[in-house]
User: Fold this.
Amino acid sequence: MTVNNCISVRLTSEIRLKQALKEAGVEDPNSIEKLAISGEITEADFRFFRKKMSNALQELDMGNATSIEIFDRYFFSGCKSLTSIIFPASTLKIDKTAFENCIALTSIAIHPDNPVYASANGILYNKDMSELLFFPCAHRGEVVVSELRKYYDSSKFVVVLPASLTKIGTSAFANCEKLLSVDIPETVTEIRGGAFEGCTALTSVYIPASVVEIYINDYESTYRRAFYGCSALKSITVHQCNPVYASRDGVLFNKDITELITYPAGRKGEYKIPETVNKIGLYAFSKCSGLTDIYIPDSTTEIDNRAFYGCTGLTSVIIPDSVKIIGACAFYECKNLCSINIPDSVTEIGFAAFAFCTGLTSCVISNSVTIIGAHTFTGCSKLISVFVPCSVVEIGEDAFSPAWSPDEANLLYVSDTFVEIEVHPDNQVYASLDGVLFNKSKTVLLRCPEGRKGEYVIPDTVKTIMKHAFRGCDGLTSVIIPNSVTEIGEFAFEECSGLTSIDIPDSVKKIDLCAFYDCTGLISINIPDADIEIGGGAFGFTGLKNVHILASTVKIEHDAFECCEDIYITVHPDNPVLTSINGELWWK
Assistant:
Protein backbone atom coordinates (compact mmCIF):
# COMPACT_ATOMS: atom_id res chain seq x y z
CA MET A 1 0.00 0.00 0.00
CA THR A 2 1.34 3.43 -0.96
CA VAL A 3 1.28 5.84 1.96
CA ASN A 4 0.06 9.39 1.36
CA ASN A 5 1.87 11.35 4.04
CA CYS A 6 -0.09 14.62 3.82
CA ILE A 7 -3.23 15.50 1.87
CA SER A 8 -5.09 18.84 1.87
CA VAL A 9 -8.62 19.15 0.51
CA ARG A 10 -11.25 21.86 0.33
CA LEU A 11 -14.89 20.82 0.61
CA THR A 12 -17.91 22.63 -0.83
CA SER A 13 -21.62 21.89 -1.00
CA GLU A 14 -20.94 20.16 -4.35
CA ILE A 15 -17.65 18.44 -3.48
CA ARG A 16 -17.70 16.02 -0.60
CA LEU A 17 -14.73 14.31 1.04
CA LYS A 18 -14.86 11.16 -1.10
CA GLN A 19 -14.80 13.18 -4.36
CA ALA A 20 -12.22 15.67 -3.04
CA LEU A 21 -9.79 12.89 -2.24
CA LYS A 22 -10.30 11.34 -5.66
CA GLU A 23 -9.60 14.73 -7.32
CA ALA A 24 -6.45 14.98 -5.18
CA GLY A 25 -5.24 11.74 -6.74
CA VAL A 26 -5.85 9.52 -3.73
CA GLU A 27 -6.69 5.99 -4.83
CA ASP A 28 -6.85 4.45 -1.37
CA PRO A 29 -8.26 6.78 1.36
CA ASN A 30 -7.02 4.36 4.00
CA SER A 31 -3.44 5.16 3.04
CA ILE A 32 -3.61 8.77 4.26
CA GLU A 33 -1.61 9.55 7.41
CA LYS A 34 -2.18 13.31 7.57
CA LEU A 35 -5.30 15.11 6.39
CA ALA A 36 -6.08 18.85 6.38
CA ILE A 37 -9.66 19.84 5.58
CA SER A 38 -11.00 23.32 4.82
CA GLY A 39 -14.47 24.33 3.73
CA GLU A 40 -17.76 22.76 4.79
CA ILE A 41 -17.61 19.41 6.61
CA THR A 42 -20.82 17.41 7.00
CA GLU A 43 -21.81 14.30 8.91
CA ALA A 44 -21.73 12.38 5.62
CA ASP A 45 -18.03 13.24 5.34
CA PHE A 46 -17.39 11.84 8.79
CA ARG A 47 -19.29 8.66 8.01
CA PHE A 48 -16.96 8.19 5.03
CA PHE A 49 -13.99 9.08 7.22
CA ARG A 50 -14.82 6.45 9.85
CA LYS A 51 -15.56 3.77 7.29
CA LYS A 52 -12.68 4.33 4.85
CA MET A 53 -9.91 6.25 6.64
CA SER A 54 -9.79 5.18 10.28
CA ASN A 55 -6.93 2.68 10.08
CA ALA A 56 -3.96 4.78 8.95
CA LEU A 57 -4.88 8.41 9.67
CA GLN A 58 -2.70 9.95 12.36
CA GLU A 59 -3.27 13.69 12.13
CA LEU A 60 -6.56 15.45 11.33
CA ASP A 61 -6.52 19.25 10.86
CA MET A 62 -9.97 20.89 10.66
CA GLY A 63 -8.76 24.28 11.91
CA ASN A 64 -9.75 26.11 8.73
CA ALA A 65 -12.99 24.24 8.18
CA THR A 66 -16.59 25.19 8.75
CA SER A 67 -17.51 22.09 10.66
CA ILE A 68 -20.68 20.60 12.03
CA GLU A 69 -21.28 22.15 15.45
CA ILE A 70 -21.58 18.96 17.52
CA PHE A 71 -19.08 16.11 17.78
CA ASP A 72 -21.30 13.64 19.57
CA ARG A 73 -20.83 10.19 21.10
CA TYR A 74 -18.24 7.91 19.44
CA PHE A 75 -17.51 10.35 16.61
CA PHE A 76 -13.90 9.18 16.28
CA SER A 77 -14.49 5.79 17.90
CA GLY A 78 -12.04 3.14 16.77
CA CYS A 79 -9.58 5.52 15.09
CA LYS A 80 -6.70 3.73 16.76
CA SER A 81 -3.91 5.44 14.82
CA LEU A 82 -5.16 8.99 15.33
CA THR A 83 -2.62 11.04 17.33
CA SER A 84 -3.82 14.63 16.95
CA ILE A 85 -6.98 16.55 16.07
CA ILE A 86 -7.42 20.28 15.41
CA PHE A 87 -11.00 21.54 15.83
CA PRO A 88 -12.38 24.64 14.07
CA ALA A 89 -13.94 27.75 15.56
CA SER A 90 -17.44 26.50 14.66
CA THR A 91 -17.39 23.53 17.06
CA LEU A 92 -19.84 24.10 19.93
CA LYS A 93 -19.96 20.67 21.58
CA ILE A 94 -17.39 17.91 21.98
CA ASP A 95 -18.61 14.81 23.81
CA LYS A 96 -15.72 13.06 25.54
CA THR A 97 -16.96 9.71 24.30
CA ALA A 98 -16.22 11.02 20.81
CA PHE A 99 -12.66 9.75 21.41
CA GLU A 100 -13.62 6.24 22.53
CA ASN A 101 -10.76 3.79 21.79
CA CYS A 102 -8.54 6.51 20.31
CA ILE A 103 -5.64 4.82 22.05
CA ALA A 104 -2.89 6.77 20.25
CA LEU A 105 -4.36 10.24 20.77
CA THR A 106 -1.74 12.63 22.19
CA SER A 107 -3.05 16.09 21.34
CA ILE A 108 -6.24 18.09 20.89
CA ALA A 109 -6.03 21.64 19.59
CA ILE A 110 -8.80 24.24 19.32
CA HIS A 111 -8.98 27.20 16.93
CA PRO A 112 -8.36 30.37 19.01
CA ASP A 113 -11.65 31.93 17.86
CA ASN A 114 -13.75 29.07 19.21
CA PRO A 115 -16.31 30.57 21.66
CA VAL A 116 -16.72 27.44 23.84
CA TYR A 117 -13.39 25.61 24.05
CA ALA A 118 -9.68 26.26 24.42
CA SER A 119 -6.56 24.09 24.39
CA ALA A 120 -3.05 24.19 25.77
CA ASN A 121 -0.27 21.61 25.50
CA GLY A 122 -2.66 19.26 23.69
CA ILE A 123 -5.24 19.31 26.51
CA LEU A 124 -8.90 20.31 26.09
CA TYR A 125 -10.35 23.03 28.38
CA ASN A 126 -13.46 25.18 28.53
CA LYS A 127 -13.03 28.67 27.08
CA ASP A 128 -11.65 30.43 30.16
CA MET A 129 -9.52 27.38 31.01
CA SER A 130 -11.12 27.04 34.42
CA GLU A 131 -12.14 23.41 33.75
CA LEU A 132 -9.95 20.66 32.34
CA LEU A 133 -12.30 18.67 30.12
CA PHE A 134 -10.18 16.01 28.43
CA PHE A 135 -6.60 14.78 28.70
CA PRO A 136 -5.74 12.56 25.70
CA CYS A 137 -5.00 9.05 26.90
CA ALA A 138 -1.69 8.75 25.02
CA HIS A 139 -0.47 12.25 25.98
CA ARG A 140 3.28 12.28 26.52
CA GLY A 141 2.86 13.80 29.99
CA GLU A 142 3.66 11.11 32.54
CA VAL A 143 3.76 13.56 35.44
CA VAL A 144 1.17 16.30 35.94
CA VAL A 145 2.32 19.03 38.30
CA SER A 146 1.09 22.33 39.64
CA GLU A 147 3.05 25.47 38.95
CA LEU A 148 3.95 25.58 42.65
CA ARG A 149 5.60 22.14 42.73
CA LYS A 150 9.24 22.55 43.78
CA TYR A 151 10.74 19.51 42.11
CA TYR A 152 10.10 16.84 39.54
CA ASP A 153 11.95 14.23 37.57
CA SER A 154 13.34 16.23 34.67
CA SER A 155 13.69 13.07 32.57
CA LYS A 156 9.90 12.99 32.26
CA PHE A 157 7.80 15.20 30.04
CA VAL A 158 6.06 17.68 32.35
CA VAL A 159 2.62 19.20 31.89
CA VAL A 160 2.05 22.44 33.78
CA LEU A 161 -1.64 23.02 34.39
CA PRO A 162 -2.78 26.65 34.11
CA ALA A 163 -3.25 28.91 37.13
CA SER A 164 -6.82 29.58 35.94
CA LEU A 165 -7.85 25.95 36.53
CA THR A 166 -10.60 25.47 39.15
CA LYS A 167 -12.26 22.23 38.05
CA ILE A 168 -11.09 18.85 36.77
CA GLY A 169 -14.05 17.69 34.70
CA THR A 170 -15.93 14.42 34.44
CA SER A 171 -13.66 11.64 33.11
CA ALA A 172 -11.03 14.27 32.24
CA PHE A 173 -8.06 11.89 32.64
CA ALA A 174 -10.03 8.65 32.23
CA ASN A 175 -7.97 5.70 30.96
CA CYS A 176 -4.70 7.65 30.78
CA GLU A 177 -2.72 4.50 31.39
CA LYS A 178 0.70 6.23 31.40
CA LEU A 179 -0.15 8.77 34.08
CA LEU A 180 2.08 8.08 37.10
CA SER A 181 1.32 10.76 39.67
CA VAL A 182 -0.83 13.84 40.10
CA ASP A 183 -0.36 17.00 42.12
CA ILE A 184 -3.61 18.95 41.85
CA PRO A 185 -2.96 22.72 41.48
CA GLU A 186 -3.81 24.92 44.47
CA THR A 187 -6.43 26.71 42.37
CA VAL A 188 -8.64 23.62 41.86
CA THR A 189 -11.82 23.43 43.96
CA GLU A 190 -13.66 20.51 42.33
CA ILE A 191 -12.77 17.05 41.01
CA ARG A 192 -15.67 15.52 39.07
CA GLY A 193 -16.83 11.91 38.76
CA GLY A 194 -14.49 9.50 36.98
CA ALA A 195 -11.86 12.24 36.64
CA PHE A 196 -9.00 9.72 36.91
CA GLU A 197 -10.98 6.53 36.30
CA GLY A 198 -8.94 3.74 34.77
CA CYS A 199 -5.55 5.45 35.23
CA THR A 200 -3.93 2.10 35.90
CA ALA A 201 -0.36 3.40 36.33
CA LEU A 202 -1.29 6.17 38.79
CA THR A 203 0.46 5.50 42.11
CA SER A 204 -0.02 8.69 44.12
CA VAL A 205 -2.28 11.74 44.31
CA TYR A 206 -1.86 15.00 46.18
CA ILE A 207 -5.02 17.00 46.96
CA PRO A 208 -4.46 20.65 47.97
CA ALA A 209 -6.33 22.71 50.57
CA SER A 210 -8.43 24.36 47.84
CA VAL A 211 -10.40 21.21 46.82
CA VAL A 212 -13.83 21.20 48.49
CA GLU A 213 -15.67 18.67 46.31
CA ILE A 214 -14.51 15.26 45.12
CA TYR A 215 -17.42 13.79 43.23
CA ILE A 216 -18.88 10.61 44.72
CA ASN A 217 -22.11 9.25 43.24
CA ASP A 218 -24.61 6.45 43.72
CA TYR A 219 -24.16 3.00 42.19
CA GLU A 220 -26.58 3.61 39.30
CA SER A 221 -24.78 6.65 37.87
CA THR A 222 -22.70 6.58 34.71
CA TYR A 223 -19.68 8.30 36.24
CA ARG A 224 -18.13 6.76 39.31
CA ARG A 225 -15.79 8.03 41.98
CA ALA A 226 -12.89 10.18 40.91
CA PHE A 227 -10.20 7.47 41.30
CA TYR A 228 -12.24 4.42 40.33
CA GLY A 229 -10.18 1.66 38.69
CA CYS A 230 -6.79 3.17 39.59
CA SER A 231 -5.39 -0.29 40.27
CA ALA A 232 -1.83 0.86 41.10
CA LEU A 233 -2.82 3.73 43.43
CA LYS A 234 -1.13 3.37 46.80
CA SER A 235 -1.43 6.78 48.40
CA ILE A 236 -3.77 9.78 48.53
CA THR A 237 -2.38 12.74 50.44
CA VAL A 238 -4.51 15.72 51.48
CA HIS A 239 -3.12 19.09 52.56
CA GLN A 240 -3.61 19.46 56.31
CA CYS A 241 -5.43 22.79 55.87
CA ASN A 242 -8.13 21.34 53.58
CA PRO A 243 -11.50 22.21 55.21
CA VAL A 244 -13.45 19.23 53.79
CA TYR A 245 -11.09 16.29 53.34
CA ALA A 246 -8.29 14.59 55.24
CA SER A 247 -5.93 11.69 54.74
CA ARG A 248 -4.50 9.20 57.16
CA ASP A 249 -1.93 6.59 56.19
CA GLY A 250 -2.61 7.37 52.51
CA VAL A 251 -6.39 6.82 52.74
CA LEU A 252 -8.96 9.53 51.89
CA PHE A 253 -11.52 10.55 54.57
CA ASN A 254 -13.83 13.45 55.27
CA LYS A 255 -12.35 16.14 57.51
CA ASP A 256 -13.27 14.64 60.88
CA ILE A 257 -12.41 11.05 59.86
CA THR A 258 -16.01 9.84 60.29
CA GLU A 259 -16.41 8.69 56.68
CA LEU A 260 -13.92 6.61 54.73
CA ILE A 261 -14.16 7.89 51.15
CA THR A 262 -11.47 6.14 49.09
CA TYR A 263 -9.00 3.39 49.92
CA PRO A 264 -6.19 3.22 47.30
CA ALA A 265 -6.84 0.20 45.10
CA GLY A 266 -3.18 -0.68 44.67
CA ARG A 267 -2.57 -1.52 48.32
CA LYS A 268 -2.37 -5.12 49.53
CA GLY A 269 -2.93 -7.08 52.72
CA GLU A 270 -5.09 -6.18 55.69
CA TYR A 271 -6.45 -2.82 56.78
CA LYS A 272 -7.86 -1.61 60.07
CA ILE A 273 -10.42 1.17 59.72
CA PRO A 274 -9.95 3.99 62.28
CA GLU A 275 -12.32 3.82 65.25
CA THR A 276 -13.75 7.27 64.48
CA VAL A 277 -15.36 6.06 61.24
CA ASN A 278 -19.15 5.62 61.24
CA LYS A 279 -19.65 5.28 57.48
CA ILE A 280 -17.82 3.31 54.80
CA GLY A 281 -18.66 5.38 51.74
CA LEU A 282 -19.75 4.73 48.15
CA TYR A 283 -17.14 2.68 46.28
CA ALA A 284 -14.76 3.19 49.23
CA PHE A 285 -12.86 -0.11 48.74
CA SER A 286 -14.21 -0.88 45.26
CA LYS A 287 -11.87 -3.01 43.10
CA CYS A 288 -9.27 -3.26 45.88
CA SER A 289 -8.32 -6.75 44.74
CA GLY A 290 -5.24 -6.91 47.00
CA LEU A 291 -7.25 -6.36 50.19
CA THR A 292 -7.33 -9.65 52.15
CA ASP A 293 -8.76 -8.72 55.55
CA ILE A 294 -10.72 -5.74 56.80
CA TYR A 295 -11.33 -4.72 60.41
CA ILE A 296 -14.51 -2.67 60.81
CA PRO A 297 -14.77 -0.80 64.14
CA ASP A 298 -17.79 -0.74 66.46
CA SER A 299 -18.30 2.92 65.55
CA THR A 300 -19.43 2.02 62.01
CA THR A 301 -23.19 2.17 61.37
CA GLU A 302 -23.37 2.11 57.56
CA ILE A 303 -21.69 0.18 54.77
CA ASP A 304 -22.71 2.16 51.69
CA ASN A 305 -23.42 1.05 48.11
CA ARG A 306 -20.59 -0.86 46.43
CA ALA A 307 -18.29 -0.22 49.38
CA PHE A 308 -16.36 -3.49 48.83
CA TYR A 309 -17.40 -4.11 45.21
CA GLY A 310 -14.95 -6.40 43.44
CA CYS A 311 -12.62 -7.00 46.41
CA THR A 312 -11.70 -10.39 45.01
CA GLY A 313 -8.94 -11.03 47.54
CA LEU A 314 -11.13 -10.44 50.60
CA THR A 315 -11.47 -13.69 52.55
CA SER A 316 -13.22 -12.64 55.75
CA VAL A 317 -15.29 -9.78 57.12
CA ILE A 318 -16.61 -9.33 60.63
CA ILE A 319 -19.53 -6.92 60.59
CA PRO A 320 -19.91 -5.36 64.06
CA ASP A 321 -23.21 -5.04 65.93
CA SER A 322 -23.22 -1.29 65.29
CA VAL A 323 -23.92 -1.62 61.53
CA LYS A 324 -27.55 -0.93 60.59
CA ILE A 325 -27.43 -0.79 56.77
CA ILE A 326 -25.59 -2.94 54.23
CA GLY A 327 -25.93 -1.05 50.96
CA ALA A 328 -26.59 -2.17 47.40
CA CYS A 329 -23.80 -4.29 45.89
CA ALA A 330 -21.78 -3.72 49.08
CA PHE A 331 -19.82 -6.98 48.69
CA TYR A 332 -20.61 -7.67 45.03
CA GLU A 333 -18.10 -10.07 43.41
CA CYS A 334 -16.06 -10.64 46.58
CA LYS A 335 -15.26 -14.05 45.12
CA ASN A 336 -13.12 -15.39 47.99
CA LEU A 337 -15.48 -14.41 50.81
CA CYS A 338 -16.49 -17.75 52.38
CA SER A 339 -18.96 -16.84 55.11
CA ILE A 340 -20.78 -13.84 56.51
CA ASN A 341 -22.69 -13.15 59.71
CA ILE A 342 -25.32 -10.41 59.59
CA PRO A 343 -25.47 -8.92 63.12
CA ASP A 344 -28.61 -8.12 65.10
CA SER A 345 -28.24 -4.41 64.37
CA VAL A 346 -28.83 -4.72 60.60
CA THR A 347 -32.37 -4.06 59.35
CA GLU A 348 -31.82 -4.04 55.59
CA ILE A 349 -29.60 -5.96 53.19
CA GLY A 350 -29.35 -3.95 49.97
CA PHE A 351 -29.82 -4.89 46.32
CA ALA A 352 -27.25 -7.52 45.19
CA ALA A 353 -25.27 -6.99 48.40
CA PHE A 354 -23.53 -10.39 48.13
CA ALA A 355 -24.18 -11.15 44.44
CA PHE A 356 -21.52 -13.24 42.69
CA CYS A 357 -19.68 -14.01 45.92
CA THR A 358 -18.81 -17.33 44.31
CA GLY A 359 -16.92 -18.64 47.36
CA LEU A 360 -19.74 -17.93 49.83
CA THR A 361 -21.01 -21.14 51.45
CA SER A 362 -23.05 -19.76 54.34
CA CYS A 363 -24.72 -16.58 55.53
CA VAL A 364 -26.33 -16.17 58.93
CA ILE A 365 -29.12 -13.59 58.76
CA SER A 366 -30.11 -12.11 62.13
CA ASN A 367 -33.65 -11.70 63.42
CA SER A 368 -33.41 -7.91 63.05
CA VAL A 369 -33.40 -7.97 59.22
CA THR A 370 -36.69 -6.91 57.64
CA ILE A 371 -35.64 -6.55 53.98
CA ILE A 372 -33.53 -8.88 51.87
CA GLY A 373 -32.97 -6.93 48.66
CA ALA A 374 -33.41 -8.17 45.11
CA HIS A 375 -30.53 -10.32 43.82
CA THR A 376 -28.90 -10.40 47.27
CA PHE A 377 -27.38 -13.86 46.77
CA THR A 378 -27.59 -14.04 42.97
CA GLY A 379 -24.69 -16.02 41.49
CA CYS A 380 -23.43 -17.38 44.83
CA SER A 381 -22.52 -20.70 43.24
CA LYS A 382 -21.29 -22.46 46.43
CA LEU A 383 -24.13 -21.46 48.74
CA ILE A 384 -25.59 -24.45 50.62
CA SER A 385 -28.56 -23.10 52.55
CA VAL A 386 -30.24 -19.90 53.73
CA PHE A 387 -32.36 -19.33 56.83
CA VAL A 388 -34.98 -16.56 56.63
CA PRO A 389 -35.83 -15.26 60.14
CA CYS A 390 -39.30 -14.29 61.29
CA SER A 391 -38.45 -10.56 61.09
CA VAL A 392 -38.21 -10.54 57.26
CA VAL A 393 -41.21 -8.91 55.56
CA GLU A 394 -39.74 -8.39 52.08
CA ILE A 395 -37.60 -10.59 49.86
CA GLY A 396 -36.69 -8.89 46.60
CA GLU A 397 -36.91 -10.46 43.16
CA ASP A 398 -34.31 -13.18 42.47
CA ALA A 399 -32.76 -12.81 45.92
CA PHE A 400 -31.74 -16.50 45.82
CA SER A 401 -31.72 -17.17 42.06
CA PRO A 402 -28.77 -18.03 39.82
CA ALA A 403 -27.71 -15.38 37.32
CA TRP A 404 -25.71 -14.94 34.15
CA SER A 405 -22.05 -14.10 34.70
CA PRO A 406 -21.18 -10.38 34.49
CA ASP A 407 -17.82 -11.31 32.95
CA GLU A 408 -18.31 -14.41 30.79
CA ALA A 409 -20.92 -14.74 28.06
CA ASN A 410 -23.39 -17.63 28.29
CA LEU A 411 -22.26 -18.69 31.76
CA LEU A 412 -25.05 -19.17 34.30
CA TYR A 413 -23.79 -19.20 37.89
CA VAL A 414 -25.61 -22.15 39.44
CA SER A 415 -25.03 -23.62 42.91
CA ASP A 416 -25.26 -27.40 42.74
CA THR A 417 -24.90 -27.38 46.54
CA PHE A 418 -27.79 -24.99 47.27
CA VAL A 419 -30.52 -27.33 48.48
CA GLU A 420 -32.49 -25.52 51.17
CA ILE A 421 -34.27 -22.28 51.96
CA GLU A 422 -35.70 -22.47 55.46
CA VAL A 423 -38.15 -19.91 56.83
CA HIS A 424 -38.85 -19.42 60.53
CA PRO A 425 -42.35 -20.79 61.22
CA ASP A 426 -43.42 -17.53 62.88
CA ASN A 427 -42.67 -15.44 59.78
CA GLN A 428 -45.90 -13.64 58.78
CA VAL A 429 -45.12 -13.19 55.07
CA TYR A 430 -43.15 -16.23 53.90
CA ALA A 431 -43.07 -19.97 54.44
CA SER A 432 -40.96 -22.93 53.40
CA LEU A 433 -41.82 -26.54 52.74
CA ASP A 434 -39.23 -29.21 52.05
CA GLY A 435 -36.58 -26.51 51.46
CA VAL A 436 -38.62 -24.52 48.91
CA LEU A 437 -39.69 -20.87 49.42
CA PHE A 438 -43.38 -19.84 49.24
CA ASN A 439 -45.58 -16.97 50.32
CA LYS A 440 -47.21 -17.54 53.70
CA SER A 441 -50.35 -19.24 52.34
CA LYS A 442 -48.29 -21.35 49.92
CA THR A 443 -50.31 -20.14 46.93
CA VAL A 444 -47.20 -18.71 45.25
CA LEU A 445 -44.03 -20.77 44.71
CA LEU A 446 -41.20 -18.24 44.87
CA ARG A 447 -37.97 -20.23 44.64
CA CYS A 448 -36.73 -23.80 44.50
CA PRO A 449 -32.99 -24.05 45.31
CA GLU A 450 -31.08 -25.03 42.19
CA GLY A 451 -29.24 -27.87 43.93
CA ARG A 452 -32.49 -29.82 44.17
CA LYS A 453 -32.37 -33.12 42.27
CA GLY A 454 -34.75 -35.82 41.05
CA GLU A 455 -38.51 -35.40 41.15
CA TYR A 456 -40.38 -32.53 42.77
CA VAL A 457 -44.12 -32.45 43.42
CA ILE A 458 -45.53 -28.92 43.69
CA PRO A 459 -48.03 -28.62 46.58
CA ASP A 460 -51.66 -28.49 45.48
CA THR A 461 -52.13 -25.13 47.25
CA VAL A 462 -49.99 -23.36 44.64
CA LYS A 463 -51.71 -21.14 42.05
CA THR A 464 -48.71 -19.26 40.66
CA ILE A 465 -45.20 -20.43 39.81
CA MET A 466 -43.23 -17.19 39.96
CA LYS A 467 -40.65 -15.78 37.57
CA HIS A 468 -37.33 -17.69 37.82
CA ALA A 469 -38.84 -20.07 40.42
CA PHE A 470 -36.93 -23.12 39.08
CA ARG A 471 -34.31 -21.30 37.00
CA GLY A 472 -31.09 -23.31 36.72
CA CYS A 473 -32.48 -26.41 38.52
CA ASP A 474 -30.67 -28.68 36.08
CA GLY A 475 -30.73 -31.62 38.50
CA LEU A 476 -34.52 -31.87 38.41
CA THR A 477 -35.70 -34.76 36.25
CA SER A 478 -39.44 -34.36 36.83
CA VAL A 479 -41.80 -31.66 38.13
CA ILE A 480 -45.42 -32.53 38.89
CA ILE A 481 -47.68 -29.49 38.41
CA PRO A 482 -51.03 -29.76 40.26
CA ASN A 483 -54.47 -28.73 38.93
CA SER A 484 -54.43 -25.71 41.24
CA VAL A 485 -51.78 -23.85 39.16
CA THR A 486 -53.14 -21.15 36.83
CA GLU A 487 -49.95 -19.32 35.80
CA ILE A 488 -46.34 -20.28 35.04
CA GLY A 489 -44.19 -17.13 35.19
CA GLU A 490 -41.44 -15.75 32.98
CA PHE A 491 -38.33 -17.95 32.77
CA ALA A 492 -39.84 -20.13 35.52
CA PHE A 493 -38.04 -23.30 34.36
CA GLU A 494 -35.21 -21.72 32.34
CA GLU A 495 -32.12 -23.94 32.02
CA CYS A 496 -33.79 -26.95 33.66
CA SER A 497 -31.88 -29.21 31.29
CA GLY A 498 -32.70 -32.39 33.20
CA LEU A 499 -36.45 -32.18 32.52
CA THR A 500 -37.58 -34.53 29.75
CA SER A 501 -41.35 -34.14 29.86
CA ILE A 502 -43.99 -31.84 31.32
CA ASP A 503 -47.71 -32.37 31.78
CA ILE A 504 -49.44 -29.01 31.95
CA PRO A 505 -52.82 -29.34 33.72
CA ASP A 506 -56.11 -27.91 32.39
CA SER A 507 -56.08 -25.29 35.15
CA VAL A 508 -53.13 -23.37 33.60
CA LYS A 509 -54.30 -20.26 31.74
CA LYS A 510 -50.92 -18.67 31.02
CA ILE A 511 -47.43 -19.92 30.21
CA ASP A 512 -45.42 -16.72 30.26
CA LEU A 513 -42.41 -15.45 28.33
CA CYS A 514 -39.58 -18.04 28.06
CA ALA A 515 -41.14 -20.19 30.80
CA PHE A 516 -39.29 -23.36 29.67
CA TYR A 517 -36.54 -21.60 27.74
CA ASP A 518 -33.36 -23.63 27.14
CA CYS A 519 -34.71 -26.82 28.73
CA THR A 520 -32.56 -28.73 26.27
CA GLY A 521 -33.63 -32.16 27.53
CA LEU A 522 -37.34 -31.46 27.18
CA ILE A 523 -38.71 -33.66 24.39
CA SER A 524 -42.37 -33.97 25.35
CA ILE A 525 -45.12 -31.63 26.58
CA ASN A 526 -48.83 -31.97 27.00
CA ILE A 527 -50.68 -28.73 26.20
CA PRO A 528 -54.23 -28.91 27.66
CA ASP A 529 -57.44 -28.55 25.69
CA ALA A 530 -58.22 -25.17 27.23
CA ASP A 531 -58.09 -21.45 26.56
CA ILE A 532 -54.39 -20.97 27.34
CA GLU A 533 -51.97 -18.14 26.55
CA ILE A 534 -48.42 -19.13 25.55
CA GLY A 535 -45.80 -16.37 25.54
CA GLY A 536 -42.85 -15.69 23.28
CA GLY A 537 -39.98 -18.16 23.62
CA ALA A 538 -41.99 -20.22 26.11
CA PHE A 539 -40.46 -23.43 24.74
CA GLY A 540 -37.50 -21.88 22.91
CA PHE A 541 -34.26 -23.88 22.58
CA THR A 542 -35.85 -27.08 23.89
CA GLY A 543 -35.55 -30.59 22.48
CA LEU A 544 -39.24 -30.85 21.60
CA LYS A 545 -39.96 -33.04 18.59
CA ASN A 546 -43.73 -33.52 18.22
CA VAL A 547 -46.23 -30.91 19.44
CA HIS A 548 -49.96 -30.94 18.81
CA ILE A 549 -51.95 -27.71 19.20
CA LEU A 550 -55.62 -28.30 20.03
CA ALA A 551 -58.61 -26.42 18.65
CA SER A 552 -59.11 -24.27 21.76
CA THR A 553 -55.53 -22.97 21.90
CA VAL A 554 -55.45 -19.68 20.00
CA LYS A 555 -53.17 -17.35 21.98
CA ILE A 556 -49.64 -18.40 21.04
CA GLU A 557 -46.84 -15.96 20.25
CA HIS A 558 -45.22 -16.69 16.88
CA ASP A 559 -41.82 -17.41 18.47
CA ALA A 560 -43.08 -19.66 21.27
CA PHE A 561 -41.10 -22.60 19.83
CA GLU A 562 -38.10 -20.64 18.49
CA CYS A 563 -34.88 -22.56 17.72
CA CYS A 564 -36.39 -26.01 18.36
CA GLU A 565 -34.42 -27.62 15.55
CA ASP A 566 -36.19 -31.00 15.34
CA ILE A 567 -39.73 -29.90 16.17
CA TYR A 568 -42.76 -30.91 14.09
CA ILE A 569 -45.97 -29.07 14.96
CA THR A 570 -49.47 -30.19 14.09
CA VAL A 571 -52.65 -28.16 14.67
CA HIS A 572 -56.20 -29.42 15.09
CA PRO A 573 -58.14 -28.61 11.88
CA ASP A 574 -60.88 -26.86 13.87
CA ASN A 575 -58.47 -24.30 15.38
CA PRO A 576 -59.85 -20.92 14.18
CA VAL A 577 -56.55 -19.03 14.26
CA LEU A 578 -53.61 -21.40 13.80
CA THR A 579 -52.49 -23.95 11.26
CA SER A 580 -49.34 -25.88 10.45
CA ILE A 581 -47.48 -26.13 7.15
CA ASN A 582 -44.75 -28.75 6.83
CA GLY A 583 -44.49 -28.96 10.62
CA GLU A 584 -44.23 -25.20 11.16
CA LEU A 585 -46.73 -23.05 13.06
CA TRP A 586 -48.57 -20.40 11.00
CA TRP A 587 -51.44 -17.98 11.44
CA LYS A 588 -54.42 -18.74 9.25
About this structure: The helical segments are 17-23, 43-52. Residues 285-438 form a domain with the Leucine-rich repeat, LRR (right-handed beta-alpha superhelix) fold (CATH 3.80.10.10).
